Structures are given as C-alpha cells and as structure tokens.
Amino acid sequence: MYLGDGTWEKVKQAPGPPWGRAHPKLNIMACFADNGQGITVFSPTANNHWNFGPHGKYNPNAKPTDSPCMHLAPIGTVKLGPQSTLEYRYWMIMGNKAEIEPRLDALLAKHKDEKIKLTEPE
After folding, report:
1. 72-105, pLDDT tens digit by residue?
2. Interatomic CA distance for residues 77 and 49, integer angstroms
3. Of the residues 34, 46, 84, 106, which has the maximum number of CB atoms within 10 A of its CB?
4. Cis omega (within 30 of 0) on the bond before 18?
C-alpha cells in the first residue's frame, strides 16, 4: 500500500481465493515482481475495503497467459436505483517504484478527495 512521499507498507496474503482484505489509507495498492516491476491501482472513489491477493503458484517458466497473477479490487458501495448514473475513476500505473511514485504523488495532489458520484434522474 502506498502511503505517499515514496513510503510503502508491505502487506502479505496467501494465494486465494479467498482474497485478503485491506483498507489502504490513500486508496492505492500495488503488486511488484521480484525484478521490481509492478502495477499500481489508485481509486480515490473506493469507499470500502479492497480485495487483494496472489493467485496461482510461482512458475519461473510461465508465459504471460499462465498463473501466477495478482488480484486487486477497490470496492465502492452505493445504493443504485433503476435509472441511477454512477461515476467513478481509477488509474493503473505500471513500472518500478521510482517510476510510479512521482505519478502517484501528482495524482494524489489532484484527485485524493474525489468521491463516488451517484445521480438519480428527476
């Protein structure tokens, strides 16, 4: 979980399902491979826990379509009506931590206070 200003909190989870649950302070979680490359999800509109965890066993000869893979799911909870319009945003950033961190800090500065927007017709 990214805490801002280049600070990370490491969270471990056994392979799932079932998935782990986390409450990232800044609504950012990432998964990094042993070589330092990773993917980050930032979802400022998530208003609940996140499901997360690895799936499959490590295979050094795996193809991109094989396991293992990671599961990151920011959860947003709202009560929808028959004509509801739901607006939310998220970003996915790939790279190593040095490449990801400045992008996350810029996104946080601009979007950290965004909330889910639910519109009902009149």
Report:
1. 999 999 999 999 999 999 999 999 999 999 999 9
2. 10
3. 46
4. yes
